[in-house]
Amino acid sequence: MTASLHKLTAGSGYDYLTRQVAAQDSTEKGHASLTSYYTEKGEVPGRWVGTGLLALEMEPGSPVSEGQMRALFGSGFHPDMEARLAALPKDATDEQIRKAARLGSPFTVRTAATVFQQEVAVRCSQWAAANGLGGDGQVPVDVRAEIRNELATAGFEARMGRLPSSLELSSEVALMTRNPTIACAGYDVTFTPVKSVSALWAIAPQAMAAQIEEAHNAAVADALQYLEQRVLFSRRGHGGVRQVEVTGLIAAAFTHRDSRAGDPNLHTHVAIANKVQALDGAWLAVDGRPLHAGMVSISEVYNTQLEAHLVERLGVRFAADATRDPAKRAVREVVGVPGQLREAWSSRRAAIEARQAELAVDFQSAHHRPPTPVEAIALAQQATLETRQTKHEPRSLADQRMVWAAQATAVLGTNGVTRMLADVATAGQVVGPAPTTEWVESVAVEMVERMGVARASWTVWHLQAEASRRARERATGPQQAEELTAELLAAATARCLPVDGWSDPVSDPQLLRRSDGQSMYTTVGGRRFTSTAVLAAEETITAAARLTDGRRVDEVEVSLALLASTASGVALNAGQISLVRQMAMSGRRVQVGLAAAGSGKTTALAVLAGAWRESGGTVLGLAPSAVAAGVLGEQVGQAATLAKIVHDLHHTPRTVEALIRPGTLLIVDEAGMADTPTLAAVIGFAVERGASVRLIGDDQQLAAVGAGGVLRDIAEAHGAVHLTEIMRFTDPAEASASLALREGRLEALGFYLDQGRIHAGSEETVLRDALNGWITDKAAGLDSVMLAGTREQVATLNRWARDHRLTTNTDDQPAVVVVGLSDGNVASVGDVIVTRMNERRIPISATDWVKNGDRWTITAVDATGAIRAIHRGTGLRIMLPPGYVAEHVELGYAVTVHCAQGVTVDTTHTVLTGTEARQQLYVAMSRGRQSNHAYVQVVDGSEENSPIHPTTLRPVTAGDVLEQVLARDGSSRSVTTETRQATDPYTRLGQAAARYTDAVTVAIEQLHAEAARELDEHADEVVEQLTSYPAWPTLRAHLLHAAADSTPTPLQILRGAVDARELGTAADPAAVLTWRLPDPAGVGPLPWLPAIPATLAAHPQWGPYLAARQDQVRDFAAEVRDAAAMVSRPVWALPGQTLTTTSVGDVEVWRAAWQVDRADRRPTGPAQLGAAAHRWQQQLADRIRPAHPVGVWTDLLRDIRADLPRDPYATVLAHRLAALHQAGVPVTEHLAAAVADGPLPAEQPAAALWWRLARHLAAADGPTLPAWKTDLVDQLGYEAAAELEASPWWPHLAAAITHAVDQGCTVEALITPVSDVSGFDDVCQAMLWRAHRLTEAPPADEVEPPHPDELPPDGIEDIDWSTRTTDLAAAASLRERTDPDFTDVKLRQGFAAADRWAEEPHTPQRLAQVTEAAALFFETHLPDSWSHTYFSQRFGKDLAGDPRFRLGHAPEGWTSLVGELRKQGFTTDELLAAGVATTTRQGNVIDRFRDRAILPIHHEGVIVGFVGRRHPEVGDEQGPKYINSPASALFAKRDVLYGHHLLTPEAVPVIVEGPMDAIAVTLAGGGGFVGVAPLGTALTPEQTLLLSTSKVAVIATDADNAGHTAAENTFWLLAGHRHDPHRLLLPTGSDPAQLLEQHGPTALHDALTGATTLQAELMIRDRVTFLDPAEAGRQIAEITAARPPATWEQHLALVPEEQTRHLVARVNAWTTTTSAAADDAREQTRAMRRRLDQTPADRWQRWSDTTGLTAAGEWAQIADRLDELHHAGADTRLLARRLARVPAAVVTATLAQHRPDAAVKVDWRPWAETVNPALLSGEGWGSVQSDLTRLQAAGTDLNALARRLADRDPEKVIAGLRSVLRNHASQRSTGSKVSEGNEMMLRQGLRRGVGRDGSRGV
């Protein structure tokens, strides 16, 4: 019986999933909605549950509808939102609407599909259409997968410049398919009874089945009631510091009857909404902490209550299942229900999972990646369909019951069901003993003892779960079960001791207390307990560790032992020597040695044992396992297991006394895996006997199964000997990476990703891949092992490995006799097996016996099941009896990770599910000398609830899984550790700061309740949905603080912040507004915290309370500073940082106050909201900024790969590189070699680069045994010397010291201990830095040394990257931080408007009435006018009456409009002022527009003027083609864009030259494009203000010289607004309106959609084509500077190095003085216009010089064609290369048929016609064209060749061409040696980024 928990994601993700998966029992196409997923086939409707429904005015038990689920779980609104809104009056206020719909803040839901998802959908639609599928057709999984692969591969290749690996493809697809919504909508809790209950329910009589289902429902209700009363809370305040009570849960319950496999599986899903109501009525989110922590107790409540309900209703009896694995917790099943029936109903699921596994393997083989979660679900659906036994699954419950009954009869036989029911009834008649007080007391004692064995401390959730388990042993009804649980919980709690922790001495006021009197600042269930026994055990060990009166070995004897070891060929390193010396000579009774994996501890322990024995003592080795004890015994002489010693202490103590006596040294290996009670018993006895104990282990490897963690306590209090120099690995970089993995540092993954050691897959494929890797290594003769986290996975790997052995080894024929093993596998002769239980009764020698972990090879199997085998290590032989084989023997090809600790092999292959802890990962990845591979499961489509799992919507990558594993600390924590961490000032300061800030906010809310209420009610009116944004709580608190002692209210301050600047582009307006708020007056207990407002300080209750909170913060801050002063090197320190005691203390206080993760390498952690906090954070960063430059190294990383600086590890890497360079290490040489090793991985590239560099650093030349090494040990001691030698910097330090000694420095000066290593990796690097400084020659007095920024690293010129981007990076940063400033334009615009209206007597409203009346007049005259016909012909449709454009016609009369408007009451002055009338020379007032088509101009909601178009059939004598309204107070054409009023945020503005083009674009745009036109010759700065916040525009000016000039001017103006516009390339002489008229709207729309050419690219191509390189570079620098930083790299190669300063200056000008920069830039456009004024023949003169066509008669025609091609986007430079020195006729013909987007295909027909037209019809014409192309490329003058070959026969022409080609080939051969050196130089130049023209590359 279980209750499982999954998060539910908000939004439409459920609809997306359920449309394509078969969830639960359905094998149809899929579900249409979340409700259909939950309600299965509609027979069991969902129901609402929870006491929180009362607040929603909903009835518990009422049915659930899809609309309700969509509102609540999709968006976070009231379930009945639709009905409640419909019931509101039409004039409902915003507040009424909010109350009807909202439950606090709605969920943040991103409904738009990603670009990748959209493209996949498009491709799938195209495939479906091409393959004849209708709209409902399902695209096959494989097709969808291939489409995803193609898109992901293309995106990866475009970004990285290479194809992805299999792992990278898997990660790319996972990332691209992620749903953008991550908000938690709630939690799915699934209650499932044990299999026997479902089996009994399935085949019992209807009445009995109904009772079982009612019992299940009642148990679910009991569990939910417990959840509501004990587990359900919410959080409020600063950082959620307050845990508050709620009214109850809101949930929808859905009961299902079977599993996806179709077997009986009664279970209920309860979807708990992430919406709860606090007691004050506020709607909040569920506090997930107690929900997750208390989930086991909720599950056990359900289990106990279900048993109790069934016992009470049916009289059944439950008992532990005897067939279950004894290593697992017992499961209680209904007595009488046969196990074979349960197993039979599980077989269908097994068949489905087996088929799904096959499909997953096939999928990964076909697509080179594992399936995504959605694809895995589809495969599960396919597996379900393929394995179902009938054509159609039963639809109704009655049908299912009939099928289940038949299946049960088939399993149990005739009348078997009847017998089963009788057995169940008979078993129920057995009445168990009643609970008594004595029973309760004894069980309570057992509970506490059980807790103490499993863990050192526990919470009430552990006790509750155990109490529930034990209560069902005696309970006979649900009421009694609840009472017994409560009694057991109370009795057990009374026997527990609370763990000493920090108790907050500040008493909170009633307002900050829950109803039980507890402070809201405490967490329910958070208190930890322990027992007297655990405390006594820990005290025994720690007390013994304080003793120093133990036996000591003399220095001479230790030295002799070390010499003897060296003489025998085993030389110890400094770390091992230090361990031997300290442990032999310390005199400590108990001492700890912490040894990393592969550090050589076993070798050191052998020498330690020898020294101890030589001095007269005895040695006894102890280990947790028998195998480990055997290995240890080989080194130290005698060993036993800890369990054996403890057993003998209780049963045969004299045996132990003989082993442990005064002078005995107990060496406990793998001590971290021993539980505390066992260690305490052994250590206590040893100390009493006068012995000494040495605990050797690793607190970062696998921990004790029970209570442990004591090694860390001893190391913390008394120190430990450390072994960190790794000797196991063949690759030194892997040694360093393993240590980083050991510490949980993410950069460790970079090594394994770079080396291809990480593999992603599904549950099945990771097992298969691990097996294949193991098989490959075994075939190569390597010692390899497969590892897995679970015994089930190990059994599968073992079975497959055995199958492989039998199928591939011809000597191992299929066995005649096999024997069944305990893991479910079988074995035969030749198989490797492992014994899993110590059994002294099965001896293998006089002193040895069968042990847990021994590995054997089977030599014989007899018919009884006995096995004869040979030990794989010792060669000893054994016979294992049948009973032992069946219970304790498994196949031994693979082992669990726990069994692998202590193993060393060549390679490992580990299967990871993602549930492992960091310690398991470290052990698994540190066993192999040569390589260690991890096969990471990233998807599990077989899990029943996978469709609703969050990872289905947001797939994880292998990197994500490994990061989660690294963050999961599985080490044991002792009570001492718990106490130490609870009282750590770092933790307490974070709590105190949060409580202080929150308490001040609560106090302000209470004393200024009206202002707070006003803010809450009206905030959304100031900024729409402001209270829905994530940062609103923080903004709200800041507003309350800012207004506490000031006159403005919080709402007024908010309005002021909103009015300060625009908010339209803010993703979270609340966060942006928080930055804008003024700082509160005064400074609080920390520099960035608010002070206590005066009104609160003077308050009689709040004043003293807040003062106490303030003092508490200051006190803890002082403690943190004191602790920081004791730390030599903070974890966040980077090499080269300027650190002082004060700065380190301030940073530590900041980190503690914000509770920055201690492992976070960022000095101040993540950025914090609020101006005061931001300033202090920035100040801290400035104070610890490195003294030496690191920017050049960041630029260098960017040059290596553009995304490297974005890697979280890049900052650390840049500091490391700078420090190495400053220390004299030739880092650039090493870095170049590291880069040359191959492409870096897509993930963790900076970390991967560091591990490569570490490998090169470790290989650096340096003396391994320098002459001064003895001085090193004498001066520093063995421990410090060992630390130095273990550092990766050691080879460099050794070389530096040797060099310094050679220069005359003394060793003493060089190896003096360093007191302060802050800012360095370790002491070794700090000493390296100092050695470099001591040997560095001082600069001459008269020469000022250059600034470090001016010194490039040595050798950097030889590396394939450029550092010219340093200044550009700074300029880009400035650009990102600076918004463009158009104050001058806005002021000019404002002043002009003021001037216009200053002398205008009429109001704007009145003039707008005039223009509106005029527009109506023109509209009424449009029908039957020539304008109507004209508009209809131009636009292809009748636009009369279209409100978007309001087109009209001005009649011919002189005063038609004037007369009409005068009748309407408008005066002549008003008509003139509005611009609709004008005066003649005689002073008569007439219509301004007469006989013209009218286009009204809209601006800011009114018509401000008109455009009049003359009749198309009349000439200029009738006036200009277009006339506008005159400038007036109402109309200033500089400020207005025609068509702008139709522009929406979703539409792209298309800038055209006139209103007709604008209308054409809008008509064809379909809402996606809207045409806008300036009302003059060019766009103005004022008009671009209207486009500043729109989408980036498309420029569609006419395809003529004026249009090209206008396009460039438009670019400069838009660039100032940080836009990079595209250009629509139209045919020469064409415009958008013509395109619409001639080809229709589709053609124009397609042209707009395909307008992907950037205007800047066209301008750059123009400069390259027509200007010399120097001038082109200068102008391209200007164009580049105007564009976004992301585009700069594309054309930097065209800007000469010497113009870099000019480029940077122009970039900064465009950033800071945008308008002036645009004005300056337009000078080059004026120069371009002067070029356009030239004739094409003159303009293309350079092209003609290149091709040799200057004197050609066709040159003018060719130049005209070049003009057309150039403006259409053709590459004219490529044309020049392909057409150089060919006849003009060939050029003319080629250009005539060339298209800009096509390859250049030279038309050689004119050449042939000149030589001999017969060539065209001959068979050799194809070869002639090929030969001509080759000759042209070789530089042959084809004009001269044509003259030489003219009038010859075709055969002779062909022969002549071949002869010329041979001559060219022979000349190249002769000259090859001469040019070889130049070509070599050219290749070297290219490698250094130097082009053929000498320009620098980027």
Any overview of this molecule?
The protein starts with a strand and ends in an 11-residue tail after the last helix. Helices cover 50% and strands 10% of the residues. It is built from 81 helices and 44 strands. β32, α35 and β33 (928-939) form a beta-alpha-beta unit. It has a 6-stranded parallel beta sheet with strand order 16-15-17-18-14-19, with helices on both faces. A 5-stranded antiparallel beta sheet has the order 1-3-7-6-2.
Q: Can you describe this structure in just a few lines?
A:
It contains 81 helices and 44 strands. It is α/β, with parallel strands linked by helices and 1898 residues long.
Beta-strand share of residues = 5-15%
| Strand line-up in the sheet with most strands | 16-15-17-18-14-19
Number of strands: 44
Mean pLDDT: 84
Evaluate the radius of gyration: 42 Å
**Head-to-tail CA distance between termini:** 64 Å
Class derived from helix and strand content: alpha/beta
Stretches where pLDDT falls below 50 for ≥5 residues?
13-43, 1259-1265, 1338-1363, 1868-1898
Let me know the largest β-sheet. 6 strands, parallel
Question: Which percent range fits the helix content?
Answer: 40-55%
Secondary-structure topology with pairs:
Layout: E1 2-9, H1 13-18, H2 34-39, E2 47-49, H3 66-75, H4 81-86, H5 94-101, H6 115-130, H7 141-160, H8 166-176, E3 184-192, H9 195-203, H10 206-231, E4 234-236, E5 242-244, E6 251-258, E7 264-273, E8 276-277, E9 283-284, H11 288-293, H12 295-314, E10 318-320, E11 332-334, H13 339-367, H14 373-387, H15 397-412, H16 416-428, H17 437-454, H18 460-471, H19 478-494, E12 497-498, E13 529-530, H20 532-545, H21 555-567, H22 574-585, E14 590-595, H23 601-614, E15 618-623, H24 626-636, E16 639-641, H25 642-651, H26 653-659, E17 664-668, H27 676-688, E18 692-697, H28 710-718, E19 721-723, H29 732-742, H30 748-754, E20 758-762, H31 763-779, E21 784-788, H32 791-808, E22 819-820, E23 826-827, E24 832-835, E25 839-843, E26 849-850, E27 855-861, E28 867-871, E29 877-880, H33 882-888, E30 889-891, E31 894-896, H34 897-900, E32 905-912, H35 918-924, E33 928-939, H36 950-953, H37 958-967, H38 975-982, H39 985-1007, H40 1009-1022, H41 1032-1043, H42 1050-1060, H43 1069-1076, H44 1094-1097, H45 1102-1125, H46 1141-1153, H47 1171-1183, ...
Helix pairs in contact: 6-7, 7-8, 9-10, 10-12, 12-18, 12-19, 13-14, 13-15, 13-31, 17-18, 17-19, 18-19, 20-27, 20-28, 21-23, 22-23, 22-53, 25-26, 25-27, 29-30, 29-51, 30-51, 31-32, 39-40, 39-45, 39-46, 40-42, 41-42, 41-43, 45-46, 48-49, 50-51, 52-53, 54-56, 59-62, 63-66, 63-67, 66-67, 68-69
